[in-house]
Amino acid sequence: MEIFTFAHHLEGVAAVAGFLAVAAVDSNMSDTAGEFDFDVVPETDQSFENALANARDGRRLSVADGIELITTGTDREGIDPERKELVLEAADRRRAEVVGDEVTFVANVNNNVTTACNTGCLFCNFKDTAQHFEADAPDDHAGFTKTPEESRAVVADAVERGVYEVTSVSGLHPAFGLNEAHREALDPDDPEHNYKPPERYTTDPHTYVEQIAAMSDAGAHVHSMTPEEAHHAQRGVDWDYHHVYRELADAGLDTVPGTAAEILVDEVRDVICPGKIDTGEWVAAMEAAADVGLPMTATMMYGHVENEAHRVRHLDVIRNLQDRTDNITEFVPLSFIHQETPLYDRGVVETGASDAEDELLVAVSRLYLDNVEHIQSSWVKFGNAKGLKLLNCGADDFMGTILSEEITKRAGGQHGEFRSVADYADMITAIGRTPVERSTDYTERRVVDPDADRPGPRLGPRADGTPLVPDRDADDARGAAADD
Questions:
Q1: Class (C level, CATH) for 6-33+101-482
Q2: Residue 262 near residue 273 (C-beta atoms within 8 A)
Q3: E runs forming strands in 225-327
Q4: Pairing assessment for the beta strands 445-447 and 434-438 based on DSSP bridges
Q5: Which one, of 91, 144, 170, 172, lies nearest residue 375 by Cα?
Q6: Between 81-99 and 355-368, two packed helices, what is the crossing angle to 10 degrees?
Q7: Which of 444, 480, 385 is nearest to 164 (CA)?
Q8: CA atoms of 331 and 320, how far apart (whole Å)
């Protein structure tokens, strides 16, 4: 496997810069995926009817089957509404067979440590160029960096409120290292190390080990350290991913989010995130996390420049990884929020996925990933009404309470930052399903009584059934949520 270095990042960013300059002035790029000379295209020798029969009969789907289902047939232009409904029905039936009528959620808080990052992903508006954080730079950016003490305080407050999990996904701050030994080994004069010493910055992020330990000490289940962050934690040294994840597990890491996946087809990654690790590196990091004993999730960020064949190829990478590890607890489709991102600002994309595409992505994920039990729908990405609709398209998880949410909000998301247990109970029972509070890895579960007086979480280490935000007017909050 080719070793990915920061020099590769710089080369990739430079290579795509010319395309973006053209895209910014090209007003005819309405069908963005068609503007790229991709090798992977949605063409098959399979028929939609045969693919649907395979799905209904529970046979393991081929890539060709998946492409036929997600396109509602490559023999027709566009999405066929009647065929789409047949795919959704098959997926919802499979969901009922696999997990029943329960809809799960977790009481969690987001604690993103820093927005400082030099990776340059074109779909992201979460990060801020790291040089803006240097001590001698003008203080005119909206970014942030938290110390371990600040992270501990954020998480401790959430745990006292009843939260079970902290999710932490951050920018790749150049001063970050796995531990102090890693920072000492990095050479600030070597551009491949992408490192500057902490004294160069207004706020020292400290090390990954210190940040993970701080959040763990606060009492929460720590869900953190994506493959991209794990790569950053071993840059410039000869440590492998196993070393990184073992040390982080010893510091208090509990589970790993399989984000930074975007689309696991390198010809797409070369366009939207040329500075990120490639598909092989992402898979290697996930396999290492599994070997160390850290349960993990898997994601897909879709609806930008990729086509339907890329989406199915991505699902195939996930299914093959799960065949080898049996360690993925859930699959999380992430529909691209295009507003306020470089891809949108520079004219590369005009919109994200359509409602029909979102429904088919969730449905085909359920049918294709026959070895992953749980599929998530996201109220952050879709809002309540559409998120609930996707629970009838094959999904069975409705993510988390999220006391704070930065990533989607910075990209232009419009669906708020918090849902209470009462909100969940109301919404899930309204579609005839059973609300269930869960742990991150699904090993702990509790059915929520929708008739309880302002129900709160009970699985967190300090949870006692008190609402996460006791002074929040539950009736007003539920009314506002219903308006999404």
A1: alpha beta
A2: yes
A3: 296-302
A4: antiparallel
A5: 91
A6: 40
A7: 444
A8: 13
Domain ranges of the chain: 6-33+101-482, 48-96
CA distance 481 to 209: 37
Dihedral pair phi/psi, residue 95, rounded to 5°: -60, -45
Q: Do 127 and 171 form a contact (C-beta atoms < 8 A)?
A: yes
User: What would the DSSP string read from start to end of 180-203?
Assistant: HHHHHH--TT-GGG----GGGBSS
Euclidean distance between CA atoms 216 and 276, whole angstroms: 28
CA angle (95, 100, 103) in 5-degree steps: 85
Both tokens of 20, joined, read: 């973006």
What mean pLDDT is predicted for residues 302-324?
97
Alpha helix segments (H runs only) across 391-484 = 407-410, 421-430, 474-482
Q: Determine the residue type at 162.
A: G
Tell me how far apart the alpha carbons of residues 187 and 178 are, in angstroms, rounded to a whole number. Answer: 14
Q: Kindly report, residue by residue over 357-408, the tens digit of the pLDDT.
A: 999 999 999 999 999 999 999 988 888 999 999 999 999 999 999 876 443 3
In 3D space, the residue among 216, 349, 219 whose CA is nearest the CA of residue 271 turns out to be 349
The answer to whether residues 369 and 323 touch, using CB atoms and an 8 Å cutoff, is no
Segment 44-95, tens digit of pLDDT: 999 999 999 999 999 999 999 999 999 999 999 999 999 999 999 999 999 9
